[in-house]
Structure formats: C-alpha cells, structure tokens
Amino acid sequence: MTSLPLISVDPDARGRRPAMPPRHLADLDLPGRQALVTELGEPAFRAKQISNHYFGRLVRDPERMTDLPAATRERLAGTLLPTLLTPVRELACDDGATRKALWRLHDGSMVESVLMGYPDRVTVCISSQAGCGMACPFCATGQAGLTRNLSTAEIVDQAVYLAGVAASGAVAGSPPRLSHVVFMGMGEPLANYARVVAAIRRLVTPAPEGLGLSQRHITVSTVGLVPAIRRLASEDLSVTLALSLHAPDDELRDELVPVNQRWKVSEVLDAAWDYAATTGRRVSIEYAMIKDVNDQPWRADLLGRLLAGKLAHVNLIPLNPTPGSRWDASPKPVEREFVRRLRDAGVSTTVRDTRGREIDGACGQLAAAEDRDSDPRAATA
C-alpha cells in the first residue's frame, strides 16, 4: 500500500520550510491592512482605497490607482501588492469560453487556474497547493507530488485575476462578473486548511475587504480528510462540499484514492452527511469514470445504495487522460448505463461538461507539459 502524508506539510524533502511568498493585502483582513498602512505612516483610510482597487475594481497594477498620490502608491504597492503570480502560458478554447492560465510563483513552483464561461455564470477553478500529496494514480497533479502549500493571497489572486478577465468582456456570451469559484485545481484544499478557509472568507466578504461572492457559489473539493471535513462544518460557512469518491468500495478506492487506507468509504460518507446536516448544503459526489476500472454496473448499483435518500448529487466526470497514462475514459454507452442505474436508485446524477481537452484541461497537465518542455533531458528521453 502507498504511504502518503495525510495532511500536507510545508517542509521540503530535506526538512527545510520552503520560503512562502511576501505578504500581500489578501493575506490580511481589513483591520490588518489598516494596521500595516498606519505602520508605514499613512492614514488608515488608504487601506480601504487600495483594497477597493484590488477587490472592488479588480485592479492589480498600482500604476492604475491614480487616486493615490504617486509616492504613496509606490510605497503601499511595494508592501501590500507584491507580484505573486507570473503568467507562463494562457490558453483558450471552446471559442474563448474556457481559458487556462499557468502561473510561476516566486520560488519557481507552477500552478494552474481555469476560467469557464457559461450563458448564466462565470466559474473559476483555482489551485490551493503547488502539486499534491494525495498520490491518486489517475491524476497528473497527484503523480507530480507535493511542492508546497499556497499562501492565502496566492489562492485569492488567481480568482481576482480571472475575475478581471471576465470583467473585461473577454468571455463572449457570458456575464461580465465572476460568480462561482471551485477549489478543484491543483492540490488537496483541506490539506492546506487554514489558508483555504482564510481565502474563502476573502472571496465571500464584500468589497473592499473581499470579492463579495455568495458562499453558496463556492465549492471545496476533498479526497476525504475526515477531521478536516468535520472542522469545516463548524466554520459557519455555507460552501458546497465536493467529495472525490471515485469508487464505492474500499478495495478499489484504496488504490484510486490512497487516503482511503486511513479513512474508509463509510467514515468519509458519514462525515459528508454530517456536513450536509450541519450546513443544509447538498454534497456533491465526484466520480471520475475510468474505463474498465470503476464503471461496472454493480459499482453503480452499490453507489446508488450508499447515496439513496441522502442530501447528495453525483457528478460523473469523463476522465481526461494524461499523456502516457494507462487510464482512459469510459465509453459513452457505459457512462449512460451508469447514469441510468444511479437515477433508478433515486440519486440525482449529472455528467460534467467536458472543457479544455485541447489545452491540457485536466488538472496538472499544463504544468507537466511545461516541465517537459523546459527539461533538456526530455529531448533525448
């Protein structure tokens, strides 16, 4: 069995703590920003001004904050708006409705974010870690391993940047305002618990302190870290919990989601139902459809029995295979039969819209491709 860290830690393989990025205004609540501004000898209201630019107007470039005196602007920006994300690649597909960004962080780590435009909403998928320590074998990020946790501001800055893209009108046929955020990018969000929860609070608090999104439009994905799920239920947040189940039986889930070796299917589902009972929010059960692995009719029936009568919705995900992987997506007839059996069991089920296949849309693929392109050994491998 695979041995893995159940809650990720920041130290690297030599026991050193990777250097976190410089402090950013998104790392602080508004009183914290005001205290920092006054330490710089500026009046406290400057914190609101610069925060309103960043969260209210989605302006990340200090030169555009022209209501601030030039000298003040430079001093505040140097302290509160350090560059956290440097674009490496930005790709678009689906007639511009899907846009994927690959970022380089201050230490050279890379993370990905995706913007998805729909007629009624704009959703961004953001990363919470550079890499991932959960070691799920069908996931490109899981196979890359964990580099480090992201800071609160590194998480939030992805959403603010892509909210600015939406506001620019670049996503034709979609509203110009970001409405939904899903923590389904690189990393296990609940393994970076404190910073992810702080990021959620920035996303849902109205401007100038935060982005002002609805809590109900935030989704946090997890492979099933039971203590963290129970802790999240006590946070007085109404975010949606998305449980990456991928198998209804322990024998297979031990292989597909190695953390299952610690917390079995029954324990994970019990925590999910407690979360639903506490928050009143329906749990999303994420299930990647993998050809000849987890797509058998009997597994659909077992999943239906586990979920029948629960406050849950199944989100079936056609697997987006990674290059060279032995894993492939289930054929459509198999997928349709899986859906039929779940619905016959009374379980609400949908198939996720497939986006971004031609731009390495699956989590971790673009970063992996960049690593291959930048590795001189790849040319001779």
Quick summary of this structure?
With 381 residues, the chain is of the alpha/beta class. The chain folds into two domains: 25-80, DNA polymerase, domain 1 (Orthogonal Bundle), CATH 1.10.150; 86-379, TIM Barrel (Alpha-Beta Barrel), CATH 3.20.20.
In terms of topology, how is this protein built?
Blueprint: H1 30-39, H2 45-56, H3 70-80, E1 86-93, E2 98-104, E3 110-118, E4 121-125, E5 129-131, H4 140-144, E6 146-149, H5 152-167, E7 180-183, H6 193-204, E8 218-222, H7 226-233, E9 240-244, H8 250-256, H9 265-279, E10 283-289, H10 297-307, E11 312-318, H11 332-344, E12 348-351, H12 365-374
Parallel strand pairs: 4-7, 7-8, 8-9, 9-10, 10-11, 11-12
Antiparallel strand pairs: 1-2, 2-3, 3-4, 5-6
Residue share in β-strands: 15-25%
Strand order of the largest sheet: 1-2-3-4-7-8-9-10-11-12
Low-confidence stretches: 1-14, 374-381
Sheet with the most strands? Answer: 10 strands, mixed
CATH homologous superfamily identity of the largest domain: Aldolase class I
The gross shape turns out to be elongated
Helix content: 25-40%
Task: Describe the protein in words.
- Residues 1-14 and 374-381 have low confidence and may be disordered.
- Helices cover 34% and strands 18% of the residues.
- The protein is elongated, with a radius of gyration of 21 Å.
- It has two domains: 25-80, DNA polymerase, domain 1 (Orthogonal Bundle), CATH 1.10.150; 86-379, Alpha-Beta Barrel (TIM Barrel), CATH 3.20.20.
- It has twelve helices and twelve strands.
- Helix 7 (226-233) packs parallel to helix 9.
- The strands form two sheets. A ten-stranded mixed beta sheet has the order 1-2-3-4-7-8-9-10-11-12. Strands 5-6 form a two-stranded antiparallel ribbon.
- Helix 7 links the parallel strand 8 and strand 9.
- The protein has helices at 30-39, 45-56, 70-80, 140-144, 152-167, 193-204, 226-233, 250-256, 265-279, 297-307, 332-344, 365-374; strands spanning 86-93, 98-104, 110-118, 121-125, 129-131, 146-149, 180-183, 218-222, 240-244, 283-289, 312-318, 348-351.
